[in-house]
Amino acid sequence: xxxxxxxxxxxxxxxxxxxxxxxxxxxxxxxxxxxxxxxxxxxxxxxxxxxxxxxxxxxxxxxxxxxxxxxxxxxxxxxx
Length: 80
Prior knowledge:
There is one protein chain. By secondary structure, this protein is mainly alpha-helical. The protein has one domain. The protein contains five helices and no strands. The longest helix is centred in the middle third of the chain and has 15 residues. The two termini are 25 Å apart.
């Protein structure tokens, strides 16, 4: 897989958006928790605590910082 180093940042971004009050989906949470445990030997507890009670609007500045470690911005410009 090309750009595998981006995967952790992308998965984390999806995880924290999913944990916001208005977007929580238990199936997505379980799949992401599984991915972090299997791929990185890590759990998601600290991410979940950091997101507790936050809205998507509140968490997006942090997500944008995570995505700076990827080529996501370039991708978004390409698809416009």
